[in-house]
Structure formats: structure tokens, C-alpha cells
Design goal:
Elements lengths: L2 H24 L9 H10 L5 E2 H8 L3 H13 L3 E4 L14 E4 L1 H22 L4 H21 L1
Antiparallel strand pairs: 1-3, 2-3
Helix pairs in contact: 3-4
Length: 150
């Protein structure tokens, strides 16, 4: 098998399996009421300061309408809080909507991050620094390609 066939086979298999594997790992009994897409919204909101809906939609590469539907579901399920005003923002910013995680949302976020940490640890455990640098360069090039066609 040449390099094209090998890489194509690996990438196709990875892309097909990632969503299934991630869903099985992330959507446990504790988080059975949300989807992997919900989990990615939770990840985009993060556990730091509240984020604007615009910032979250850009991070996810989705429209505000799509994000609003997702956030509405997460608010109903108790994972997200939506507010119109945050902290010391000026009065003219009151039209901006912020989202932040509830304690339940924080637990889901932590669960998701643990999955990613375990995955990266498994991938990098026995790599040399040079091998890790090549892997990073390879995935960066793949990311750049996806950005260039989107």
C-alpha cells in the first residue's frame, strides 16, 4: 500500500470512528440527556468567564441561529445559564447575550476534558520529542487544509 492509500485509509477510518468513539466515551449515564454536539457547545463556553453568543458561534463555526437552538436545549436541561448583562460591561452592551456553565455544565466540561487528556496521553506516551514535533506539524497541516476549504 502506498502512502496515499495508507493515509487515506487511516484518515477515513479515524473520521468515521471519532464521533462514535467520542459519543460512547462522553455520553455516560450521568450525561445521557445531552449529545456530543451539546458537549462541544459546553466545551466552547468553557469554565472561565461567561462568553458571548457571538464568540461561541465563531469558535464552533456555526450560525447564531444554530447556536441558539443548542443553547436553548442546554438551558432547559440545566447545563447553561444565559444572561443579558455581565459584570462591569457598559450599558450599551446590555443587548449582548452571555452564556456560562452551571455546576452541572462544569461537570460535563470536566468529563469532556478528561476524555481529551486521556486520548492525548495515550497518543503521546511513548513518543520522542522529535516524533511529537512531527505529529504536531502533521496535524497542524491537516488543520490548515480544513481551514482553507471552509
Amino acid at each position: 500500500m502506498d502512502i496515499y492509500e495508507s493515509l487515506n485509509s487511516i484518515l477515513v477510518t479515524l473520521f468515521n470512528d471519532i464521533m462514535n468513539i467520542e459519543e460512547k466515551a462522553l455520553i455516560t449515564d450521568e450525561f445521557s440527556d445531552i449529545t456530543v454536539t451539546d458537549m462541544h457547545i459546553i466545551e466552547a463556553i468553557g469554565i472561565k468567564e461567561p462568553r458571548t453568543m457571538g464568540t461561541i458561534s465563531k469558535a464552533l463555526g456555526v450560525t447564531m441561529g444554530t447556536l441558539t437552538v443548542g443553547i436553548n436545549g442546554l438551558v432547559k436541561k440545566g447545563y447553561v445559564i444565559r444572561t443579558k448583562y455581565c459584570g462591569t460591561r457598559s450599558e450599551e452592551d446590555r443587548r449582548v447575550v452571555y452564556a456560562s456553565l452551571t455546576p452541572k455544565g462544569n461537570a460535563a466540561y470536566t468529563h469532556h476534558m478528561k476524555f481529551h487528556q486521556d486520548m492525548i496521553k495515550h497518543i503521546t506516551d511513548d513518543l520522542s520529542e522529535d516524533e511529537a514535533a512531527v505529529l504536531i506539524k502533521t496535524f497542524t497541516r491537516l488543520e490548515d487544509y480544513f481551514k482553507s476549504i471552509s
